[in-house]
UniProtKB/TrEMBL annotation:
It comes from Haloprofundus marisrubri. Residues 177-200 are annotated as: Disordered. Keywords: Lyase. It comes from the Archaea. This is Photolyase. One of its GO terms (molecular function) is lyase activity.
Length: 509
């Protein structure tokens, strides 16, 4: 049996590899031209594939590795060499990919068996059984919201992770009220671990920056900080647990100028490539708590991201596609402001966040949610253009994870994930960051020449989407403020918002 390993399936310890006679891997170079993928991302992806190939070969596993333009060309070359081979593939995470690959193999008279993907903690059956139970229970009127928090608690109960018998460890399911601190002025984030690029990474990087020289993002190898091997990913995990985890919790919502990583784990690219498994990452964090090396508020906060949000997103995507791909319940159609591409803006928050994505293909969660997608949301940008922007810009972006986060969580283009949009004015940014004090725009002003663009756009967004949002969960307070504004105030807000959109399109924000 030949196991076909895709670029984001670089996990050695999966049962399908136990019985493999051979491994097939295809680098599809034209595929990487469908979008102007960030050079840091392509260096990571192709670099990690070649490293995985070499590790398998060191174990004396036969790897048929093709560098070609398309998956079709790779399959042609493979079946020319091994006409009788039978292929097995772990279920790809992108919607429809298993079916597409099956037809490509069938068209070459080959056979392809698709098996379960073991790179997540919860199986398809686990989620679907839970979802079915909640759907059935809704008939009797009980609280059955198909929401993350219910799922997260279910995973905790079923796996015993951070449980004390039937109760959550420490008595609470979450410690978010301890996790909204801003670091003191003199605080510096710990250094980010770096891995010296070896010859393989250097070669890939040189080739990527040559072939994809018109792509969006920083081509500089000095900025490359992402693990490309399992060994490096394990080092990154050690570093996180030993150095960053204790402060992860309290500062997880903070935004600081020139601190792009704070105490975030920076593990998403390794998890999404398969270099780390969610279970081992969570076990390490829980052990640190058990040995007294990390506080519960940090460990629970981190565990929730992995066994709650990451798993939930994967399943919601799976169940909401293909509808999610086109969802646009607020009918938002403006082009994404030019600053997302040029990085040029006077707004400090967006300049920092877009700059970080451009530099390394990374921004932390609050930058993604409350700066990058919040601004696009209240500006009225097309959620699918934003999804595409995230997809090509981020090192950890794959359709299965970017789509629910951007289309669902970030832009409320579907209500599959939350009952209200994550929309805010400049007030939130000011509270959680040190950006506004050095910004030429005044966060206290809504209208007038130097008023913070978040403010007028925020009110204008609420007004524009009143029909959909007024009745939605927890929006009542916001609409009481909407109701308190008089016609003159609205006139000024609407004029300012229209002007900001014009400036956004012209790259003049
Ligand atoms: P940490 O803050 O240290 O969190 C730990 C881990 O939890 C992450 O590594 C990640 O694996 C997981 N996680 C946390 N939240 C989520 C979530 N909502 N969905 C999936 N995993 C989660 N994550 C991606 O992996 N790829 C994406 O393309 C992506 N796009 C996003 C777009 C938007 C608009 C938003 C709001 C979030 C997005 N996320 C995405 C989720 C999250 O922001 C990133 O996983 C996280 O910032 C990665 O950095 P980290 O590893 O330092 O994470």
């Amino acid at each position: 049996m030949t196991v076909w390993i895709l670029g984001d399936q670089l996990t050695r310890d999966v049962s399908v590899l136990d019985d493999a006679d051979r491994v097939l891997m295809v680098e599809a170079h034209a595929f990487a031209e469908r979008m102007p993928y960030q050079p840091q991302k392509l260096t990571l992806l192709f670099g990690a594939m070649r490293q995985f190939r070499d590790e398998l070969r060191n174990e004396r596993i036969d790897v048929a590795y093709y560098e070609c333009e398309t998956f079709g060309e790779g399959l042609d070359a493979f079946f020319d060499e091994y006409p009788d081979a039978e292929l097995t593939l772990q279920r790809p995470s992108s919607h429809g990919a298993a079916e597409r690959f099956s037809s490509m193999v069938e068209a070459r008279d080959g056979s392809l068996t698709v098996v379960d993907d073991e790179r997540f903690l919860t199986s398809i059956e686990f989620f679907d059984d839970w979802a079915e139970e909640r759907e059935n229970a809704s008939d009797d009127g009980s609280d059955t919201r198909f929401r993350h928090e219910n799922f997260y608690r279910h995973v905790r109960r079923e796996t015993g992770i951070l449980m004390d018998g039937d109760d959550p460890e420490g008595g609470e399911w979450n410690y978010d009220d301890e996790n909204r601190e801003t670091p003191p002025d003199e605080w510096n984030a710990p250094d980010v671990p770096r891995f010296d690029p070896d010859e393989t990474t250097r070669d890939v990087h040189e080739w990527v920056t040559d072939r994809y020289d018109d792509h969006w993002g920083n081509p500089d190898l000095d900025a490359f900080v992402w693990p490309v091997t399992r060994e490096q990913a394990l080092q990154a995990l050690d570093h996180f647990v030993e150095v960053r985890l204790s402060e992860f919790g309290p500062y997880q919502d903070a935004l600081l100028r020139e601190e792009w990583a704070l105490c975030h784990s920076l593990l998403s690219s390794s998890l999404n490539l398969g270099l780390l498994t969610p279970r081992e990452v969570v076990d390490r964090a829980v052990s640190a708590y058990e040995s007294g090396d990390a506080p519960l508020n940090s460990v629970e906060g981190f565990v929730r991201q992995i066994i709650g949000w990451r798993e939930f997103m994967r399943h919601v995507y799976r169940r909401s596609m293909p509808e999610m791909n086109d969802a646009n319940q607020l009918d938002q159609t403006h082009e994404l402001p030019e600053l997302y591409y040029s990085g040029e803006t006077e707004m400090v928050c967006l300049s920092e966040a877009v700059g970080n994505v451009h530099a390394r293909g990374y921004a932390h969660h609050i930058e993604r949610l409350m700066i990058l997608s919040n601004f696009a949301l209240i500006y009225g940008a097309d959620p699918h253009e934003l999804n595409r922007w995230f997809h090509f810009g981020f090192v950890d972006a794959y359709h299965w994870v970017t789509t629910p986060n951007v289309v669902g969580m970030g832009t409320f283009a579907t209500d599959a994930l939350s009952s209200k949009p994550y929309a805010s004015s400049g007030n939130y940014v000011n509270k959680m960051s040190d950006f506004c004090s050095s910004c030429p725009y005044a966060v206290t002003k809504t209208t007038g020449e130097n008023a913070c663009p978040f403010n007028a756009l925020y009110w204008d967004f609420l007004k524009d989407n009143e029909e959909t949002l007024r009745g939605t969960g927890r929006m009542g307070l916001m609409y009481s403020h909407v109701d308190n504004k008089d016609d003159e105030e609205w006139n000024e807000i609407r004029t300012r918002a229209a002007d900001l959109r014009e400036r956004g399109a012209a790259g003049e924000l």
